[in-house]
Amino acid sequence: MNLYLAALGLLLLGALAGPVLSRRPALALSVGSWLAVAGSVVGLGAVLPFLLGAAPVESTLPWSEPLGAFHLRLDPLSAFFEVALFAVAVPASAFGAWYMKPQVGRRPLGGFVLAYGLLLVAISLVLSAADGVLFLVAWEVMTIASFVLVTFDDERLQVRRAGFVFLVASHVGTAFLVALFLLLGRNAGGFDFVRFEALRGVGGAAPGLLFALGLVGFGTKAGLVPLHVWLPEAHPAAPSHVSALLSAVMIKTGVYGLLRLLGFLPVLGAGHGLLLAVIGLGSAFVAITLTLGQEDLKKALAYSSVENVGLILLGLGLAVAANASGHPVVAALGMGGALFHVWNHALMKGLAFLGAGSLVHAAHSQDLERMGGLLARLPATGAFFLVGLASLAALPPLNGFASEWLLYLGLLSVGGAAGSAGPLLGYLAVAVLALVGAIAAISFTRIAGVALLGAPRSREAAGARESGPASYLPLALLAAGCALFGLFPSLPLRLVVPVAVQAGAIDAARVLGPASSLASPPRALLLVLVLLSVGIYLLRRRLGERAATSETWGCGFTAPAPRMEYTASSYSQLVLGSGLVPRALRPRVHLQAPRGLFPQKASFRTDAQDPARTRLFDPVFRVLGDRMSRLRRFQAGRLNLQLLYTLLTLVALLVMLAIRGRAA
Amino acid sequence: MILRALLQIGVLLLLPPLLLGVVNRVKAIAAGRKGPPLLQLYFDLAKLLRKGAVYSRTTTWVFRAGPAVGLAAIATAGTMLPVAGQPAIVSFSGDFVLFAYLLALARFATALAALDTGSSFEGMGAAREVSFASMAEPTLFLVLVVMARATGSLSLSGMLGPALAPAWRAAAPALLLSAIALFVVALAENSRIPVDDPNTHLELTMIHEVMILDHSGPDLAFILYGASLKFFLFGALLVRLVADVGATGFWSAEGAFVLELLAFSVLVGVVESFMARLRLTRVPQMLVGASILSVFALVLLLR
Q1: For A566, which DSSP code?
Q2: Measured between beta carbons, which residues in chain B are less than 8 angstroms from residue A432?
Q3: ipTM surpassing 0.85, yes or no?
Q4: In sequence order, what are the residues at sequence separation of 6 or more whose Cβ sits closer than 8 angstroms to the Cβ of residue A489?
Q5: Is A594 exposed, middle or buried (0-12, 13-18, 19+ CB in 10 A)?
Q6: What is the predicted pLDDT for the residue at A43?
Q7: Hey, is the C-beta of A634 within 8 angstroms of any chain B C-beta?
Q8: Partner-chain contact B116 A533, CB within 8 Å
Q9: CA within 20 to 30 Å of A111's CA: A362, B22, B40, B60, which one?
Q10: Is A37:A147 a contact under the CB 8 Å cutoff?
């Protein structure tokens, strides 16, 4: 625990470098970033033992807050998510030291460095807090710090809007969590997690309501459809290493919260599990379909985060349902798949966002249509980014496949069970999962093809250059993690086991352990794949010694130009326009077709739109806004009026107390 | 034993180009032509492997790696497929998921290589390939889970092994429906009429062929060979599913298997000769039709 506190201390020190050194922004940036790296490395060392069998540790620090206590606890579940945090924070912070350099002197960095350090500390505390009040305080600090980071580039209107949406959505979610913890506190007679956990056996009042509150509150943070609307706005707006941290780690605190909550509630029924799984799979399908229409590289990646959280929830729901209906093997596969995917997604989305940062930096635009040909110009960055995209498309032998494999096996094992309703749902889920995987392949070939390959689509992209090891070594670290976890999944799965057991999958050790034949496809086969690929590639180089270079074959046309390349929107047009995709998920098309014998002007534009935003929240908030505007009359802005309100409130409270007192 | 394993691998590696030769010969006969020799693809491969290659200045290593990764992925997938009723070289629970994902990896690599050229034709081909594949993928999985459920096994070797005959007796309608769906998927995945015309000469109408316009020499050889291997894999899956003749001896089983594969090629050739190619916008409807068939099969099985 002391080592863990030391790590938090280093992170805090890094945060303080912001305001203390604000006169010397370059120094503040590097001190802040490298202290964050150091703190995260120490933190990794501090939390890893808890996955290797160390007994959980608790500690209470002096804290003079009413109701709550500064009660920290590190158990496998906390440690598991902390590992994801620190493992991503190391490369992200190191990348940030390079990425933010151009901002030195342009704008004050003190607040940014402070917020960055505080975000790391706050996420870490959210994961280790063992007290409801401390948890909520850390949760709120996490929200505010990420708001500051998201709105760093606040000269852009889009960024300010994204920040606003983020703030509103986060606080609506937090309101549900406050209600959740108040109810839990009333049931348990205190806010300590130990008391909450004691409720598990007792039951307490209204577990269904608690479950619903937690699902909305934590689901908002995790970005479940349709509560995800803030995510594709906020994550692309932030500087890229912050996006990496937000998408790879911060949204997982929602998953962590749900898992903790499951430990407080009496064992849930199969219906609850089914609900989680359906929401998860639905989120995955909607989000991956929405990536197809995005022109903004980082926005597409943000939607893919929603997809992956959906897959994690699918595994969770599968585990809950299987536990309720007595299928421990399925529960172990579902829970193991969900947890393993938490780590894998952290690695691959961290990699993808850092890579996207470099590409955006090089091409001076987030627009896919203004990139192109970047692999030839940024060979190292491009190659690592490609690894991230292939992982996200869940292709073997990379890590995205390793965890989806467990989900498939879990769903298929449901299918093997007796009865017909369970198997039918399991099998249909397999088909939907396959569809999600295939759409992911469209989406990531599209991103790779338009951004990395082909000819450059803008002057900036044509002149792009690699900026040295500081920009791509962090990517190399994450890419190595993706390949390692994909080829040797038994290593990380060994660490997943105690967490899965704690989360209720009692059979995890047998099903996910190294001796199990279910946990992963034979390693030899994946190695054969790699060796065969390399072998054929080398063979080709022997054979094709006589190689000539020329222009791309243009089918007879001899002056191909980059503007004739297939665009990102045309790439996904076939599947989006095929009638298979619900109309609500298609981009809006603005077409002015050429008319007449001598056509004048013609234009074609597509706008990606989010149905949750345009069809659900925008109308609701518009109506609410209209109704609420009548309340403005009471807020005239005069001081004496405000004082009167305060007085009236006080009197009302006193009257309430007096009535209460008489009643008692 | 080792001899038999070698023979299995030999069939897997050497037979595929012949199947496409048979398809082309059937098409030629149906059209009243003489057609190229049955072994034409072997000649083509030998020629291409000896030739040099031309690379576009736009391309990177992705273009050169595409055919290699594609062929490696398809060949690795082949190790999980039981040939002639013998268990596959590798077999484990859930191997069909990896089988499908390796085919997806091959597609990913080919599509990226196509996009690397920066040609709009090849981009178009890549978009069509991955889009149609996304519509065929759920069907492929549904067909495989129907087989898994009917035989009570999660591995391809188990699904296509001795448990298949009793499964046909117990659930013939479901298996028949899924076999039809699998045939449609096989046509789509292997770029055959009515989805794609491998012999078309208009770039705008191509799917698979337009993706590989820029490949030449050994690269093209790898792609053509990989395509024939994939055709073989789907054919082997299908003939084993519908035509388990119950031959017990090794040689007779092997012989029957090769004959069945040749029959499958003839069938594909006949379909290609007597069907028109569908309009691109009609292809999704056919693929969705196939997936509805496979859902019916599942419901029939679980009833």
Answers
A1: P
A2: 138
A3: yes
A4: A340, A399, A402, A405, A519, A520
A5: exposed
A6: 96
A7: no
A8: no
A9: A362
A10: no
pLDDT in tens, B228-251: 999 999 999 999 898 776 666 778
Q: Do A543 and B105 touch (CB under 8 A)?
A: no
B122 contacts on A by Cβ (under 8 Å)? 566
Quick: pLDDT tens for B124-159: 999 999 999 999 999 999 999 999 999 989 999 889
**Alpha-carbon distance A369 to A367, whole Å?**
5
> Count of residues for chain A?
664
- List % helix, strand, coil for chain B (3-state, nearest 5): 75, 0, 25
Cβ contacts (< 8 Å) between B49 and chain A: which residues? 543
What are the extents of the domains in chain B? 41-302
Count of C-beta atoms within a 10 Å radius of residue A170: 21
Phi, psi of B154 (to 5 degrees): -105, 10
Task: Give residues with Cβ within 8 angstroms of A238, minimum separation 6.
Answer: A146, A149, A150, A152, A246
Q: How confident is the model at residue B207 (pLDDT cuts 50, 70, 90)?
A: confident
**Disruptive mutation site among A537, A541, A563, A570 for chain B (greatest number of B CBs within 10 Å):** A537
Are the Cβ atoms of B57 and A550 closer than 8 angstroms? Answer: yes
Amino acid identity, position A417? A
Q: Find the mean pLDDT for residues A66-90.
A: 93
Q: What's the pLDDT tens digit per position in A591-626?
A: 888 888 888 888 888 888 899 988 999 999 899 988
Answer whether A334 touches B (CB < 8 Å): no
Indicate the range of A446-455, A624-633, B216-225, B257-266 predicted with least confidence. A624-633
- Cross-chain CB nearest to B90 (options A427, A522, A534): A522
Q: Does A384 touch chain B (CB under 8 A)?
A: no
pLDDT at A254 over 90: yes
Q: Give the pLDDT confidence of A521-564 residue by residue, as tens digits.
A: 888 899 999 999 999 998 887 776 678 888 888 777 777 788 88
d(CA B210, CA A107): 50
Through-space distance between the first and last CA atoms of chain B, rounded to whole angstroms? 42
* Closest chain B residue by Cα to residue A422: B302
Q: Is the pLDDT of residue A321 over 70?
A: yes
CB contact under 8 A, B72 and A533: yes
Assess contact for A355 and A387: CB atoms under 8 A: no
Give the confidence band of A636 by pLDDT, cuts at 50, 70, 90: confident
pLDDT confidence of residue A607? 84
Q: For position A630, what pLDDT does the model report? A: 84
Distance from CA of B221 to the nearest CA of A (A): 10
Task: Report the chain B residue with the minimal C-alpha distance to residue A558.
Answer: B119
B168-177: per-residue pLDDT in tens? Answer: 999 999 999 9
Query: Using N-to-C axis directions, what is the helix angle for B95-116 and A421-447, rounded to 10°?
Result: 20
* Residues A18, A113 contacting (CB under 8 angstroms): yes
CB-based contact A532 B295, cutoff 8 Å? no
Dihedral (C-alpha) A538, B90, B42, B207: value to the nearest 10 degrees? -80
Q: How far is B174 from chain A (nearest CA, A)?
A: 14
Q: What is the residue-wise DSSP string for B39-69? A: THHHHHHHHHHHS-EEEETT--HHHHHHHHH
In angstroms, rounded to a whole number, what is the distance separating the alpha carbons of residues A427 and A483?
A: 29
Contacts of B185 (CB under 8 A, 6+ apart): B136, B139, B140, B143, B234, B287, B290
One-letter amino acid for residue A311 of the chain: L
- Is the separation of the CB atoms in A385 and A355 below 8 Å? yes
Average pLDDT over every residue of B62-67: 94
Report which of A202, A311, A308, A196 is spatially closest to residue A257, judged by C-alpha positions.
Answer: A196
Residue-level pLDDT at B6: 81
A16, amino acid identity = L
